[in-house]
Amino acid sequence: MIREKVIMNYIENEIKASVEIGEDNLYEKILRKANDSDYKWIDQYDFPVLEEEKKKAEFYFCYPKEKIQQMGMQIVEAFLHGFISQNRDMANRKRVRLHYQVGMEALVLQVSKGLKAHGLTPVIIKPGAMREELNEVPSTEGIEEEQIVAWYENAFRKYEEQMRDICGMIGIVEFGQPERAKNTDDCMKLVRGRRMVEDKYVKPGELSFCKVAFPNPAIGDEFEKIFDDVIEMNLEVADEFEVIQQTLIDALDKCQFIRIEGKGNNQTNLEVWMKPILDRKRQTNFMNCGGDLNIPYGEVFTTPRLEGSSGLLHIPDIYLQNTQFHNLKLWFKDGEIVDYSSEYDGKEEKDIVQKKLLSPHTSLPIGEFAIGTNTRAFRICKKYHLESQLPILIYEKMGPHIAIGDPCYRGAEEETVFNLLDGKEIVAKTNERTEKNVPDTQKYVFKHIDITLPYDEVKTMYGYDECGNKIEFLNDGKFVLEDTEKLNDGMKGER
Predict the structure, then answer these.
(1) Whether residue 139 has pLDDT greater than 90
(2) 48, 91, 209, 357: which sits with the fewest CB atoms below 10 Å from its CB?
(3) Which residues of 340-372 are buried (b: 16+ CB within 10 A; e: fewer)?
(4) What is the value of pTM for the model shown?
(5) Residue 59 pLDDT more than 60?
(6) Weakest mean pLDDT among 15-19, 253-257, 410-414
């Protein structure tokens, strides 16, 4: 009974903190005090702050102010542009959830200032830290999922009025820091419970968001060089590349399926089938994703057809769900994982795939097919050997990828969305699973995990049009479709 009360209090405090503003929000008060004259304010957080994080705060405050201001402005503009690109109405809602990492306060102040200049109210969420109390998340052992969902339902209902005022989220994250110890099973259980309820109160189809990542000083001796390159990448204007991405989309829309084959030691041999387009003059399968929503730009993505999507996806090394995977292999049949494996210490290890990727399910469907187009991100990755440290936010821009789990449009399938460049409506937002007239708990898996095949591991990627003509997109890791070759310049540092 005591443990149940602890979980209930944790859930209510979590939901309260996601809408709290003004003097009742500790983190907002700390942010208002943040400055570069003294750093006493950083010790007012209600969790341990390391010396390394204080030095990081100094780094951000001492970084060229014009760059920090520019980055803050770009994050806000990207967030606002999401309402346009996704055809969503802000509807006079004011609150924007703003999450960051301790030490980023100089940048977050600029983001907060920019939001307020547009009449919006930042909700400062508890920031991430390099060290947190291990027992922060209560144990949920023996507690049924239905009970957790019910507790979240009660908490959301209590703060329903404030929830209806949320118009989106901004997340500023880090990569390259040591993995923090967490009670992962408990976290996942609570996260899933929250997701199963939150969509009713904070509807995905009405929101904008923006997410961006920067390196943590713990990444190594080249931190400052990496930071310089990453901030320049994050500031890169996407307009020119959106035009090139549209060329990709025009060709992709002609294809019944896309086939990806790995090269060298990569054994990938996968076919992903596209949804039929009834009116190609007015409709498209792919979203042209520029520099809004996720920074940096660029990818084109769709919800593929499950039937026919079959084969092997092989990723020799990738960092997913706070876990490093070696020789990750996923076998698909009609869009569902039918087998899987990974390696640990040179031996096959299947349990880690089940626990870190699939759990609490035994299989997951393909929810997304995409092509990342940011070859500059690829060059930075290779230059500093960041393959095992980059977040998927950046890594997904470095080649073709699929996501296992729900489609990108979960909960927003009924919303009408157009590509801005050609005005075509995106019609591929559901698959055979999410089209079923069943409760959301049966329709969705409440997971979305992007898995990228980097350019240098791609032998070829191609499709065929309805006349049987082959359309090749990538060959030997390079873009080869006519009028897309300029994307390769980023690999050579020519922009």
Answers:
(1) no
(2) 91
(3) bebeeeeeebeebbbebbbbeeeebbbbbbbbb
(4) 0.88
(5) yes
(6) 410-414
The model's pLDDT over 378-425, given as tens digits with 9 standing for 90+, comes to 999 999 999 888 888 999 999 999 999 999 989 888 888 888 888 899
322 exposure class (CB count in 10 Å sphere: 0-12, 13-18, 19+)? exposed
Task: Give me the residue label for tokens 């065929």.
Answer: 464
**Alpha-carbon gap, residue 199 to 372, rounded angstroms:** 28
Contacts of 277-284 with CB under 8 Å at 24 or more apart are: 277/253, 277/427, 278/427, 280/253, 282/424, 282/425, 283/424, 283/425, 283/426, 283/427, 284/249, 284/253, 284/419, 284/422, 284/424, 284/425, 284/426, 284/427
Confidence of residue 292 (pLDDT cuts 50, 70, 90): confident
Is 84 buried (19+), middle (13-18) or exposed (0-12) by CB count in 10 A? Answer: exposed
Res. 70 pLDDT band, cuts 50 70 90: very high
**Half-sphere exposure of 84 toward its Cβ, with a 13 Å CA cutoff?**
11
Q: Is the pLDDT of residue 185 over 90?
A: no
Segment 301-314 shows an average pLDDT of 97
Taking a C-beta distance cutoff of 8 angstroms, is the pair 319, 460 a contact? Answer: no
Mean pLDDT of 274-293: 91
223: burial class by Cβ within 10 Å (0-12, 13-18, 19+)? middle
Contact indicator for 115, 28 with CB cutoff of 8 Å? no
Q: Which residue has the higher pLDDT, 137 or 378?
A: 378
* Residues 209, 168 contacting (CB under 8 angstroms): yes
Joined tokens for residue 294: 């996720």
Dig out the tokens for 147 from the structure.
């009970």
Exposure of 90 in the CB half-sphere (CA atoms within 13 A): 18
Distance of CA 469 to the CA centre of its chain: 35
Antiparallel, parallel or unpaired: β 269-273 and 257-262? antiparallel
Domain ranges of the chain: 2-235, 239-492
Q: At what angle do helices 105-117 and 26-33 cross, to 10 degrees?
A: 100
